[in-house]
Structures are given as C-alpha cells and as structure tokens.
Amino acid sequence: MSIEILDDLFDFANLDKSVESSCQLAVQDPKSLYLFMQRYTHFNGYAGSLVARLASSVGLSRNLFNSSSNPVIDEADRGLEIAAKILAATIDEHSDKGAKSVPHRTLAQATLKSIGDYAGLTVDKRNHFSILPDWMHEILDDTVKKYEGIPGNAVALIRAIGFHAASEVLADR
C-alpha cells in the first residue's frame, strides 16, 4: 500500500487542513492545547498494544499462514514469521532508542504533564478532561476491533493487517 493509493481513496488534503486548523486553534490557549494533546495521547496510547495484539492473532493462526513448498503441516507454518514482522512495527512504541528506551506512551505523558503545568491546570481539571466523550469511546472501540484481528479468521486478519499497513503509511506522512 502506498500513500498514492490512500490519497486516491481519501481526501487527505482536506483532512490535513482540518488537522492543521484544529492544531492552530489548540495552540491559542494552553487549556485547549492540553485537551487536544490529552485526546491525542489517549488515542495513541493504544498503538503499541494493538500492534502486539495483531501480531499475536497472526501467530495464533498457524493453519492460515503455511508455506506452499512444504507439504508437512507442522513444518509449513509461517505465522510466527509474519507475526514477527508485524511486531517489529511496535518496537519503537515500547522502546524508543533515541530516548534511552523510554516507551512513547511515557514520553507522551511527560509532554502532557508539562502542558498541564504550563496551563496551570489543577489535578481536578486534568481529571475532568480525562472523561472521554461518547464519540471518542466509539472511535477507540472501532479502532480496537479493526486492528486486532481474530485468530483463525482469514478475513478479519487480512482486514486488520490492512488497517495496520494503512496506519503505518499514514504515520510516515
């Protein structure tokens, strides 16, 4: 999958403008910036675990990923080889080499804390912001369902691998 294919499927120019506009609004007020970053870091905090879940679902699907050149069932399984390639995508989420092996989630939380301190937000106000609206829960639930796949279900796994591939392409934009 390439960014060109995704650009053909979605109006990324318009979506980029929406994100840019949201960012410009958020940085005008420290409290708005905190809320913006809180939502982003909350959503992104699932990334590493979801990739690991997808890798696990693929690895558990031993009968689906077999080498066609080997007729012996227990010798033909290649699920863990594919799972390892998927899992490699999450290594930076769990351990950023540039930050002395600190997980991205920890870095995001430190950034969020600094923004909250800068905005002068109390613990109560920060905890109030952590109450997610229904639309955010729907996005999170949908993302989890699409990302993890279902062990042994070829259709669900292919969709999940596609979901993962698309997220990797978009993350590299």
Overview in brief:
The protein has 173 residues and is an all-alpha fold. It has eleven helices and no strands.
Structure description:
With 173 residues, the chain is mainly alpha-helical. It has one domain (3-171). Helix content is 72%, strand content 0%. The model has no long low-confidence stretch (mean pLDDT 88). The longest helix is centred in the last third of the chain and has 18 residues, at 154-171. It contains eleven helices and no strands.
Record the SSE blueprint.
Layout: H1 3-9, H2 12-26, H3 30-44, H4 47-59, H5 73-76, H6 79-88, H7 91-94, H8 104-119, H9 123-129, H10 134-148, H11 154-171
> What is the global morphology?
elongated
Proportion of residues in β-strands: under 5%
Distance between the termini: 13 Å
Rg, rounded, reads 19 Å
Mean pLDDT: 88
Uncertain spans: none
Strand-pairing-aware structural class:
mainly alpha
Q: Any idea how many domains?
A: 1
Instruction: Report helical residue fraction.
Output: over 70%
Please report the total strand number as a whole number: 0
- Helical stretch tally: 11
H/E topology pattern: HHHHHHHHHHH
Q: Mind summarizing the main beta sheet? A: none
